[in-house]
Amino acid sequence: MSLSEELLALFGKNVIRDAQGIDARMHFFGSVPADESLSQQLIETPVLRPKIVALVSINGGVGRSTLATALSSGLQRHGESVVALDLDPQNALHHHFGVSSTLPGIGRTSLEHGAWGPLQQVGFAGCQVITFGDIDIQQQENLERWLKHEPSWLARRLSSLGLSERDTVIIDTPAGNNVYFHQALSVADVVLVIVQADAACLGTLDHLDTLLAPYLEGERPPVVHVVVNQVDERNAFSLDMVEAFKQHLGKAPLEVHRDVAINEALAFAADPLDNVVKRLASDDINELCLLLKAPKKNA
Ligand SMILES: Nc1ncnc2c1ncn2[C@@H]1O[C@H](COP(=O)(O)OP(=O)(O)OP(=O)(O)O)[C@@H](O)[C@H]1O
Ligand SMILES: [Mg+2]
């Protein structure tokens, strides 16, 4: 048995008797199908009907997962139909939503060529959540190699969910420049660049501009907003940093205030919007939801 056959066997696939699916699965071992029509089919990216919002950042720990959760709950409360998607192998979004971590997620399911539809779990306010799920290092390497070869992977996967114009997909991504970031960017209608009010985040804006540039030159460029999270009104430095972001961007960034109720929500896997009602952060998140509710630019 070859190495690739042995690895496929780990996923319970008998590749010797399952010749039909082998080309597709061989993608994550770095080889591409020989059939040109299939290659062509793989690079054609489907046009997606739902609005896709990607939360990205270079720095870790700035609040992408927290805001993905709050915005999913908020938009659902606004009458939208939301699917929150964890595209981060850290697999942390299930903590935020308090959904099961034992059910399979997109990582392993994708490697096994399973459908994403059944992975949906009910999150806050009735939104749907799709977790990344647990995968080991080898599986993660295989998946990332596959994603690098197939830039339209996420578009195809989202297309298979059969969502409509009435749906919004909120994508949580890992920090930094990685395959998940680029997959999310390739489908995004709106990109929320999440930063904190500090010099480390301010210093990443030029790098982000470079990473975003190819997508902004594309056929359907996303709308990009910078969101300064965890702004502390009582801290002069925090406010000075917001001003520095404003100077750099040439316009005021969006802001979400620091609120201990948001930390508590994560600790108890509670809906952050239940905890922040009538507080500053709740107005901020509401404002962001109204912005995201606007019809998508390229509809
Ligand atoms: N507006 C806020 N007010 C108070 N605490 C916040 C706020 N936003 C995020 N936090 C807290 O900051 C911490 C990090 O948030 P989160 O896990 O969402 O960041 P992340 O960017 O997704 O991190 P990672 O890079 O690990 O994926 C959490 O403890 C969260 O509760
Ligand atoms: Mg996160």
How would you summarize the topology of this molecule?
Elements: H1 3-10, H2 22-26, H3 36-43, E1 51-56, H4 64-77, E2 81-86, H5 93-97, H6 106-111, E3 121-122, E4 128-130, H7 137-149, H8 153-159, E5 167-172, H9 179-187, E6 190-196, H10 199-202, H11 205-216, E7 223-231, H12 236-249, E8 254-257, H13 260-267, H14 272-275, H15 280-293
The site of adenosine-5'-triphosphate has 20 residues, from helix 4, strand 7 and helix 13.
Can you describe this structure?
The chain contains 15 helices and eight strands. The chain is an alpha/beta fold and 299 residues long. It folds into two domains: 1-44, no CATH class; 48-293, 3-Layer(aba) Sandwich (Rossmann fold), CATH 3.40.50.300. It has an eight-stranded mixed β-sheet with strand order 3-4-2-5-1-6-7-8, sandwiched between helices. A hairpin with a 5-residue loop joins strand 3 (121-122) and strand 4 (128-130). Magnesium ion (MG) binds at residues 64-65, 88, 92, 172.
